[in-house]
Amino acid sequence: MASARGQRLEKRRNESAEILFLRCLSTDRGIDDGETRQFLAQSFAHVGIVDSRSYSCMPCRERLPRRTANSRACSFDMKFAVIQFPGSNCDQDCVAGINGIEGLQADYVWHKEMSLRDYDAIVLPGGFAYGDYLRCGAIARFSPIMKAVISDARAGKLVLGTCNGFQVLCEAGLLPGALVRNRSLRFVCEMVTLRVEVPDSPFTHGSSEGTLLRMPIAHGEGCYFADAETLHELNHNRRVIMRYADNRGRIVPDANPNGSTENIAGICNREGNVFGLMPHPDRACDARLGSADGAKIFQSMMQTIQAAHARAA
Predict the structure, then answer these.
(1) Is 219 helix (H, G, I), strand (E, B) or coil?
(2) What is the reported pLDDT for 312?
(3) Is the Cβ–Cβ distance between 174 and 269 less than 8 Å?
(4) What proportions of the chain, in percent to the nearest 5, are helix, strand and coil?
(5) C-alpha distances in angstroms, 204 versus 64, 164, 211, 277, 296?
(6) pLDDT tens string 71-116
(7) Domains within the chain, CATH numbers bracketed
(8) Cβ(240)–Cβ(264) under 8 Å?
(9) Is the alpha carbon torsion for 120, 80, 150, 285 positive or negative?
(10) Does position 149 have pLDDT exceeding 80, yes or no?
(11) What is the average pLDDT score of the chain?
(12) Containing H/E element for 56?
């Protein structure tokens, strides 16, 4: 009884602190008043002990209540790891997009983990890993989990890096070139059109050459750059998987949102199992979001893994 009463009082105190904080922001008084600062400090003292990793490790049934037990039962055969770095902000989009595809299950994997052996594929999501300090992806490249990402990639496991994940893959040496500041020097956030250049990659099954896909972008450093020799090698070996195009499928400067060399939007490694893509397929997995084309990439990955399992059986 006393415990329940204490919880109610604590809840009211927290609510009062939140209301006061909002009221201060809406007035000229601000939060510089000494009494206000003291009250807020006491009310939110417990916030510092909250560990966000505890939420990422919640059981799948709690994290994704929309999925039923029956629909999840068939998805345990193929598991995707979505890596969480400090500063990732598209990890939830990736998990939701992948888990919305029948036959797939996505789990959050904290960057301090050391192994990915239980997963069939790896996804490095977008965001601002480590606040993009030094360079985008430069610090994330040294996270403990990256040793497993690199070793698994070299062993042939499928790895997809979107937006910030693409930057991390370049910094880690899994993909050539670099993502630098947009030519406009501004952050861009819009829907773009992509043209599929390589239809038989592990990430583009079901999309013929020239297929146009619609996906959103959201980045400040998305301009792909590589030297002439690297660009020649990428083109000669069909490693440019997608380019920015206009609505008619033409590769023209006006369709290039960030100044990327040769309108490059996504490339793969020599072996074809590591794919970096600047647009967000995770944010284009539902027609209600404006496009469901992004789901095709995850479905293609699933088909590739299924084919590999069938060959090994």
Answers:
(1) strand
(2) 87
(3) yes
(4) 40, 20, 40
(5) 27, 21, 10, 12, 7
(6) 333 435 799 999 999 999 999 999 999 999 999 999 999 999 999 9
(7) 2-48 (no CATH), 72-312 (3.40.50.880)
(8) yes
(9) positive
(10) yes
(11) 84
(12) helix 53-56
